[in-house]
Amino acid sequence: MSEVETMHYRVLKKNHDKMIEALVKALDYQKANPSLINYSLSRTWFREAPDNPEQEIWILMDESSNHEKYAETMKTAESDVTAGDFRQQFIDMVIPDKPFSGEEVGLAHVVWQEIPELHVELHEND
Hints:
Elements: E1 3-12, H1 16-32, E2 41-48, E3 55-64, H2 67-77, H3 81-93, E4 94-96, E5 110-113
Antiparallel strand pairs: 1-3, 1-4, 1-5, 2-3
Helix pairs in contact: 1-3
C-alpha cells in the first residue's frame, strides 16, 4: 500500500527562487545517491498565503510503499554531510506552519495512507 508523507511550511516570497534552487540541488544529490532516501515520488506545491502577502505556503509530498523504511532513511540521511548542508539551507529559509487548523506550528511530517480503490490516473485531453 502506498503512503504519502506531507510537510507544510511557509517561505518568504522573496526567497521563492532561492528555495527552488536549494531544493533542486538536494534532489539532484538524492537522485545521484538513490539509497540515501527510500521513496518513489517526491512533489512540492505552493500557493500564496492568504493571511500574509509576503509569504507563500508550500507542501511537500513524498510517496513510498514502506513508511518505516522511508522514515529510517530520512534519519540516516541527516548524518550525511552533504545532505545535512542541503537540509540546513532549507531550514534557514523555512517559516514553520500549521498543517491544519488546530494543530501546532512546526515542521512535523504527516503520514497519509492511500485508498487504492480511489486511485485514478488519467491522461488529460489538451
